[in-house]
Amino acid sequence: MSESSIDSLEKLYARRCHCGLNALNLTAWTDLNAGRRFYKCPRPKVTSCGYWEWQDKQQLPPRAVTVIVDLKGKLDVMKVERNKLKRIVDGMEKAERDNLEILFEEMKFISA
Ligand SMILES: [Zn+2]
């Protein structure tokens, strides 16, 4: 597919909200509609015109929703684990940096 036909497809599926702005095209993550795409007004909730519309008129097959919800749960667990490991690595890096600084100070003292 050429780039211009992708552009025209995007224009075909693009939506404008009641404000006349390009609507956001997002993915729902609720258990009932996981993975389903929708459009909404790009403004924050308090100033939004309230425009909101499903991209597709029907829900995904139940099996697809189950798989998406299961994978999303696993992804969330992985993110928590990744953040825990990142904190450990950050702590190790800081300790290593502190050790090197102490070593550097000792070497300066010895060579003085
Ligand atoms: Zn709007």
TrEMBL record:
One of its GO terms (molecular function) is zinc ion binding. Keywords: Metal-binding, Zinc, Zinc-finger. Coiled coil: none annotated. It holds the Pfam family Zn_ribbon_GRF. Residues 17-58 form the GRF-type domain. The keyword Lyase does not apply. InterPro entries: Znf_GRF. This is GRF-type domain-containing protein. It comes from Solanum verrucosum.
